[in-house]
Amino acid sequence: MLARARSRRCMQQLSGMERRLSLSVHIVTVKVVADPNTLTMFRVKGSLELRCHLDSTEASHIQKVLSRAFESLRTQMKSESCVFTVCDTPVIIWPNKGVFEDISPDSPCGDVLQRIQSDEPESGGKRATKKKSKKDWSASVANLYLMVEVTKPGPLSAPVINKTVQKSHFLSAALPLDCAVRTHCKETVKDVCDRLVEALTQQLCEMEKVMLQHMKGTTLLIPEPLHFLLPEPKGLVTVIFPAGVPDKELETQRRELHQRFELSDDRPYFRRANAYHFPNEPYKDGYLRNPHNALTHPTLENGKVYMVQGIYSYHHYMQDWMDDNGWGCAYRSLQTICSWFQQQGYVEQPVPSHKEIQQALVDVGDKQASFVGSRQWIGSIEVQAVLNHLLGITSKIMFVSQGSELASKGRELANHFLTEGTPIMIGGGVLAHTILGVAWSESTGQIRYLILDPHYTGSEDLQVIAEKGWCGWKGPEFWDQTAYYNLCLPQRPRVI
After folding, report:
1. How far apart, in whole angstroms, are the C-alpha atoms of residue 419 and residue 433?
2. In angstroms, how far apart are the furthest CA atoms of the chain?
3. Do residues 32 and 182 touch, judged by C-beta distance below 8 A?
4. Catalytic status, residue 194
């Protein structure tokens, strides 16, 4: 019988004590192989029950008992009872006794990914049979579940029940394990499973350090593993943070991480919002992220592409049960910008609704109270005011007297995306759009704009959005050549 490890976060503490928030950070670095076109990722998740009987609440006794409990869990990870199941396949693996059910241990990792794809049901209930191209492997993830075999073959003796009356403390907590390794598609399944076992064992060591070194009395916090994808060549790293502690109380730890990985101190890399989102995990809020990734960049003579940096959500007409068709385009562009600051970890506030945007403009004295609940348009100046009031974000305003002048703004726009990397809101006439990037040639002056169009009214269908140009590259003729335009260029805060 197999007992599936549960995935959950929890904090357990013995009675009568307050939560301790001062914990340090431990890291595990995942080595990334050089060729991105032949890489894939194997990820194993699950949880292990940490159970301790405590005869005393003295710190020294708790530390000894916890150490023994963690050592037992590490032994379990290296024992024959450790089991991996490959998600969406019948493949079961006992990595420590060399038993591989429904697959050969010498099979390349690429075969596992093909099995997952061929066994995965499509939305209509049919099986997917189309194979991925070589380029697609770079975004492929094989999900594994961590399980524990709780019975053994062979005859078992009858149980003997003894009753003992004894006062003691019992600690039970679920440790959420989450390990990922990047690997070459030709590496064998057995070798990858060996690496995963080692990664799980190491993660338990780091979790033990967090609990033991930063225990206060009988108060314990459960460690939380988070993955972060750092700029190359550093790659993917796993950081153990204390669960339940807000980011604002972890600045010291983040500074230490920035120093360790030689990262600049002017932008966040290790806030929870920056945690790596695996390609095969859906976003729970239903919004599309970064639809521009489905596009091919234009080719310009001696041209370069300058793009938005990071992740944003696509906000457009008719979302959130809100009929704003014909008047809400600037609101939606503002929401896209707010989502960028939220998902880069600069702010924790949710993306504001139309009424919250309107109320912010009333609060700063820009509008009358009757503006709230109306269908009145807003422009770049209002977007600037709302960003500053709600998020504390400053913005620059670029004025263009007519649309034909936008073709000469390549240098300014390229510099913005190179240094700030934030989405730009542009308003002119009765329309507003979001600029996500530019392709610009300094020698020829040619320019293309990557436009995210908030006027879209359909469902979150990436194929339609890309093919119909709701997110797409546009030439200078896209703008009204005689209209007046204001561009709001949000500035990235210089914080960790």
Report:
1. 21
2. 90
3. yes
4. no
